[in-house]
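The methods section describes the discrete structure representation at length, but only in general terms. Each protein is reduced to its one-letter sequence and a matching series of backbone shape codes. I believe one specimen quoted in the main text would settle the matter. An entry of this sort, consisting of the sequence and the corresponding backbone structure tokens, reads as follows.
***
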Amino acid sequence: MKPALYDLATRAGEAALQQWGGDRRDITHVVWGTMTGTIHAPSMDVLLVPALGLSHKVKRLSVESMGCLTGFRWGDGTGSVGQ
């Protein structure tokens, strides 16, 4: 694990959850993406779920190390999340 990345991701996730103000049990998906070489096991999305107090049943999408295509793949993969 890359500790600085994990710290940044958990702080950002926690801030987003606080701003949202909803019930964490209502979260159905976690989407993680990065442009740089951070691939490792377990992947960051796996680590973030318990760190943020989310259900182990959430669906996860991780797009890593695709350079500038990460954003495209990330957006493409989340198209059905709200449906």
Summary: The beta strands are 29-34, 59-64. Residues 3-20 form the longest helix (18 residues). The radius of gyration is 13 Å. The helical segments are 3-20, 44-51, 69-77.
